[in-house]
Write a structure and sequence with these properties.
It is a single chain. This protein is an all-alpha fold. The chain is 70% helix and 0% strand. α5 packs across α7. The chain starts with 12 loop residues before the first helix and ends with a helix.
Length: 304
Amino acid sequence: MVGLKPPEVPPTAAVKFFSAGTAGCIADLVTFPLDTAKVRLQIQGEVRIPRGAGTVQYRGVLGTLSTMVRTEGPRSLYSGLAAGLQRQMSFASIRIGLYDSVKQLYTPKGAESAGLGARVLAGCTTGAVAVTCAQPTDVVKVRFQANGALPAGARRYSGTVDAYCTIAREEGVRGLWRGTLPNIARNAIINCGELVTYDLVKDALLRAQLMTDNVPCHFVAAFGAGFCATLVASPVDVVKTRYMNAGPGQYRNVLSCLLALLMQDGLAGFYKGFVPSFLRLGSWNIVMFVSYEQLQRAAVLAQS
């Protein structure tokens, strides 16, 4: 047995809620540089970023990371981390921690297990609620990650609190919820790709007795979840990142942002930053789900 044994008593909703938020923070700490690289690659080529002789160009994941370290210093890899951790404590707690409880609500009484429809509905529901609650933290995180791509004199925010205040002052409170609709769409897709895939793969492995309920099983299920989520969510993710990073008046709405991206970069633009997206989502899912399962078991053991 690798890791803690499955508890005889299932964890409560409160334990799952706390464990999901903590696991999300652990995963962010490990994978945040990959997320920053993904954002830089996705916004590269935006019209509003001046393209002078000194404009930094990013090539690939490792190239982006090394360029950022060389031109901005190692701390730039974790720019926006505070907002990222704030986001996970609210966002992951809701969309992951409440998934099982909501899934049971959609499962017909007397059913042996939840069907695919109940799982998909649960993923969409918790994803939408989580985005609605945590959107301001996501906006600030994306703005900070993109901030370093601008010349030193053009950078908009000096700190996390300044970012919240500046966005609210210049763009109104609605500015903190910029991109909510594409983010709801993205996270409904990602939740189905992540949680439903993880759920199905883990159940299949256990039912076929190919693996036992331990860390290797969680690792395999999480890897599959990360790949599926990246494949289906990349187009929405690119549009969401560009729209949330946009200044006032740059795009009329989400559709105009989508059309501008399509006209400028073609269909390939929707998969900009796919490799760092997969590296980030794949590794994030592995760290998060393995941590989540172990944290739940540790909490139950501590209570017994």
